[in-house]
Write a structure and sequence with these properties.
heterodimer, A: 115 residues, two-stranded parallel ribbon, two-stranded antiparallel ribbon, 4 strands, 16% strand, B: 42 residues, alpha+beta, 3 strands
């Protein structure tokens, strides 16, 4: 798994430390790869009620607020890519809370492994 | 938007150590890749 972020490195380091995630984190400060993968930006969808409620719950559970560094309208996406660089799954987030179900990703990886 | 069956655009980015990482190099090593694009880190 590769994570791609466009924020400053020190925030990436802090995020990895806070979340315990150990996957490689790559930096795309100019968002050239975001653009190559055709990710969307939407202020309206990035700050919808669902997102605001999610942030409230995260803060209430003790998550640190580090402020917003960078473009808060940038939406995320998740892809599964095989060894031939063919896309097997492309999930463009409708809003920040919209990510694919992990089991769906695992099922696709299992299908790839069995080939 | 890219779709299932499309070719994934190659890229080279740096990791936290400043080391370059190229998608095709990882794929050439035999790995499938899950690529996760993050939002701002707040």
């Amino acid at each position: 798994m590769l994570l791609i972020a466009f924020g400053p490195r020190y925030m990436g380091e802090a995020w990895l430390k806070e979340t315990g995630v150990s996957f490689p984190l790559l930096f795309d400060p100019e968002r050239q790869v975001y653009q190559a993968y055709q990710l969307e930006r939407s202020l309206l969808r990035s700050w919808n009620l669902n997102t605001i409620w999610t942030y409230i719950r995260l803060l209430a559970s003790g998550r640190k607020w580090r402020g917003i560094k960078g473009d808060s309208a940038q939406l995320g996406a998740d892809f599964v890519i095989d060894r031939e660089a063919v896309i097997w799954s492309a999930h463009y987030s409708r809003d920040p809370t919209d990510r694919p179900c992990p089991q769906q990703i695992l099922d696709i990886l299992q299908r790839l492994q069995s080939q | 938007m890219l779709r299932i069956g499309d070719r994934a655009p190659d890229f080279e980015l740096v990791d936290l150590s400043g080391c370059p990482v190229r998608l095709t190099s990882i794929l050439r090593d035999g790995a499938h890749v899950v690529l996760v694009f993050l939002r701002h880190m707040g």
